[in-house]
Design goal:
Number of domains of chain A: 2
Strand content of chain B: 5-15%
Number of domains of chain B: 2
Bound molecules: zinc ion
Largest interface: A-B, 58 and 58 residues
Strand order of the largest sheet of chain B: 6-5-7
Number of helices of chain B: 8
Oligomer: heterodimer
Largest sheet of chain A: 3 strands, antiparallel
Number of helices of chain A: 7
CATH class of the largest domain in chain A: Mainly Alpha
Helix content of chain A: 55-70%
Number of strands of chain B: 7
Shape of chain A: elongated
Order of helices and strands of chain A: EEEEHEEHHHHEHH
CATH topology of the largest domain in chain A: Butyryl-CoA Dehydrogenase, subunit A, domain 3
Helix content of chain B: 55-70%
Strand order of the largest sheet of chain A: 6-5-7
CATH architecture of the largest domain in chain A: Up-down Bundle
Order of helices and strands of chain B: HEEEEHEEHHHHEHH
């Protein structure tokens, strides 16, 4: 009898493999590890997620962009930058940065936390929904890098003797935060979702 | 228990995790997931040849994007231009090492590694040699796909340009066009390439000889 929950997809080569519940499996085709033991994946995901959440604090407190205009230095944080953009009327850009640097990371934190907690305590919701949620989480993650890249590009272009723009500590924290959120999503094991069905 | 060959007749949707039994397609045909409508596989008998040609073009285009001026701006007679070289020298000057290293990997090294891995994997499959390397390359590719941020860099470039629009005269460089071309080609490659198919080709071409390593 072919039952969907008896099979698992290899993330590396896409091969369909037999599922052995509660055990680590290696793919029949590419020999990559498909599942780690449940606990390792669970704790790894939490560890990366918490690191990312901690980094999110300096990413927002410290300036992401520093402007030096004839010796006078002004600093702007992510939120400060968005508010400034809104005030000068650059609404589309303000919205893009707001979504990419504030909403996307927060959504990722919430999604991954929800996935971890709901799979741990078997909160009822359809399995397909959780898979979709995970898929979205993986797909939107890297887009939060937009603001860091914009700051880098501006720092190259606005690089005159009188006026200079450059990235601040916030940019480093933010880039690392994105990195750890991505690691967290990648170490989340979709088997944790499967188990309840 | 089904054998490996029989298991190859199945495919699991990457988006919603539904198990499907594969049906034979016509040349150029596409199979969509019955639950979520995602494209799960397609048939293209010329996939390897087409992708090889695309990859070579993309690598050339990426080289142009990396080596020439992307955009230059002019503010009241003061000029400044953006190229990959000026980008790294400015990051070094401001001692942004972490951001610099991340940029180097996400924008320069990973896209290059991705394209050259595809090239060598397909080339080796075509000449039916170096099975173990092909397998390492295919595994590497599955990891690299999450870490290529060329498209995000390009969107950031557009955002930066809009920000500068009011103060500066912006001129597009040759690398800007090359970036657009590269992204378009990369998208076509991602759509064209079928890793499940490549792995099956790998198994058929090299048999079990390399599987034990
Ligand atoms: Zn595999
Ligand atoms: Zn589906």
């Amino acid at each position: 009898m072919i039952k969907s929950s008896n099979f698992v997809r290899c993330h590396t080569c896409e091969a369909v493999n037999y599922e052995y519940h509660g055990k680590g499996i290696f793919c029949r085709r590419c020999h990559s590890r498909i599942h780690q033991s449940r606990n390792i994946s669970y704790h790894k995901t939490w560890a990366f997620l918490i690191t990312a959440i901690i980094l999110y604090i300096p990413a927002n407190l410290y300036p992401i962009l520093i402007t030096k205009k004839f010796g006078v230095q002004t600093e702007s944080t992510i939120l400060g930058g968005i508010i400034h953009l809104w005030e000068v009327g650059s609404y589309p850009i303000a919205i893009i940065i707001l979504v990419a640097s504030v909403f996307v990371p927060l959504l990722k934190f919430i999604f991954i936390t929800y996935l971890l907690i709901s799979t741990k305590y078997n909160v009822k919701s359809s399995r397909i929904d959780k898979h979709k949620l995970f898929y979205i989480t993986e797909a939107i993650g890297p887009w939060s890098m937009i603001d860091v890249f914009v700051v880098i590009i501006l720092s190259v272009l606005i690089h005159f003797s009188g006026v200079q723009v450059f990235p601040g500590t916030g940019a480093t924290s933010f880039a690392l935060m994105v990195f750890f959120t991505m690691l967290s999503a990648l170490s989340f094991d979709t088997k944790l979702i499967k188990k309840e069905s | 228990m089904l054998t490996d060959k029989e298991l190859d007749n199945f495919i699991i949707c990457k988006k919603c995790d539904t198990l499907h039994r594969k049906i034979p397609l016509h040349q150029g045909g596409k199979a969509l997931c019955s639950k979520c409508n995602t494209l799960i596989y397609h048939r293209d008998d010329k996939m390897i040849e087409k992708t090889l040609a695309l990859v070579i073009t993309t690598i050339i285009s990426l080289m142009v994007a990396f080596n020439f001026t992307i955009i230059s701006i002019n503010i009241n007679g003061l000029e400044q231009s953006l190229s990959l070289l000026s980008l790294f020298s400015v990051l070094l000057e401001h001692q942004q090492y972490v951001v610099g290293v991340m940029f180097l990997f996400l924008i320069v090294l990973f896209p290059l590694m991705m394209l050259s891995s595809i090239f060598f994997a397909l080339f080796f499959i075509t000449i039916k040699r170096y099975g173990y390397t092909v397998r390492r390359l295919l595994i590497l590719l599955s990891h690299l796909k999450h870490w290529n941020m060329l498209d995000i860099f390009f969107i950031s470039l557009l955002v930066a340009m809009v920000k500068l629009f009011d103060y500066a005269k912006i001129e597009l460089g040759i690398a800007f066009i090359a970036f657009i071309l590269t992204l378009g080609l990369e998208l076509t490659i991602t759509k064209n390439i079928n890793f499940d198919e490549l792995w099956r080709k790998y198994e058929n071409t090299y048999g079990d000889n390399y599987d034990k390593e």
